[in-house]
Amino acid sequence: MESFVYENATRVYFGRGCVGASLEEAVRGLGKTVLLAYGGGSIKKNGIYGEVTGILKKAGKEIVDFPGIMPNPTWRKVQEGKRAVKEHGVDFILGVGGGSVMDCCKAISMAAATERDVWEEYWIRKGVVDFEPVPVGLIVTVVGTGSEVNGEGVITNEEQKIKTSRNYPRCNARFAMLDPVYTYTVSPQQTAAGGFDMLSHVMETYFSGPDDGNISDAVSEALMRTIIRNLPVAIREPENYEARSNLMWASSMAEIGIIKLGKRCDFEAHMIEHQMGAFTDCNHGMGLAVIHPAYYRRICRDGLAKFAAFAERVWEIPAQGKTQEELALAGIDALEAFIRSIGLPATLRELGITDRSLLKPIADSCLINEGGYRALTHGEILEILEECY
Ligand code: NZQ
Ligand code: ZN
Hints:
Elements: E1 11-14, H1 18-27, E2 33-38, H2 42-45, H3 48-58, E3 62-66, H4 75-87, E4 92-97, H5 99-111, H6 118-124, E5 136-140, E6 152-157, E7 162-167, E8 175-178, H7 188-206, H8 215-236, H9 241-255, H10 268-280, H11 284-299, H12 304-314, H13 324-341, H14 348-351, H15 359-365, H16 378-388
Parallel strand pairs: 1-8, 2-3, 2-4, 4-5, 5-8
Antiparallel strand pairs: 6-7
Helix pairs in contact: 1-3, 4-5, 7-8, 7-9, 7-11, 8-9, 10-11, 10-15, 11-13, 11-16, 12-13, 15-16
The chain binds 5,6-dihydroxy-NADP and zinc ion.
């Protein structure tokens, strides 16, 4: 195993009714004025907004409403949040939503606490957070990113056409509340997209060295099986508590840092999807679903034993009568069939990317990660995108 330092400062409340039972206690001591940050309005339709504001008011908090955080949150929205925090003397930020809301809150918490150019110094470059960000609490309403249990924030700068992430432990939320019932109203399409995102987080960790019998790989295999088993159930039966709760915790488990310990981690598919998002604003999980099979067929010969193990242990494909390469490719075929079976797009055009001239600028602007079995070139990324078109 590679050496590591592990910390995680987020207190997690999990389970049915956890917001009603514990929000008042969780916000005690965080100050009087709260920036209540959320997305395009789903929480008003499903009643979560009413429940949360009721608890905050009962706790004597003053609420500054901050709606409209869009999927793929922008740097412009972060600046709007920063202004709201300063103008109203906000003491803490409560994000209620999915990865987009949570990431935007973390970036606001940084931007509002320093006069530095946070985009340039902390997102374009990796900076040292030597100041205290505004405290953040998170209530999760759609799962997939795992943002609730890490310090990561993915932000899109529309002018620069860059979607990029940074992970600062100081941005970890003080608390995260995970009630699986809150995800019952998530659409089948977004359930599938979020489910694939968490599967991708596990795969991007699993398909990297060192391959030395690391305990992380065994946990990752269990996580992948859990996601594959529960995702079709949650799509078919949105109010199945067991499926929703397993997916909710699997999503956090994938990104809480535990399975990454001692691993190099790949995340090249994420680098490609992020630039697809920067140029086209596509859905994160759906973009990943398009890229993965083509990317894995390209690199699987560089990590053949691991891809064969994936086929056998995750997809339960018998090894007998197959070469290692045939087994590895059968695993990728199974992944592709799963993507189709849960209704996710399999091509860029199905995803809505119809302008082929964008593929080269997307490929050329992707970050190249060194952690996987083989580092791609920008030319290879373009070939993958052309294959996916
Ligand atoms: O905006 P509203 O109206 O709330 O609707 C949202 C949004 O349209 C809807 N939704 C949320 N809760 C709902 C609901 N609909 C019905 N019922 C509910 N209870 O879901 C839609 C998608 O929400 P969004 O937050 O955009 O999805 P997701 O959680 O997939 O987040 C995606 C963002 O997170 C980034 C992605 O790149 C993307 O920008 N990521 C963040 C990561 C992290 N911080 O660790 C890691 C990931 O790899 C990822 O890059
Ligand atoms: Zn992701």
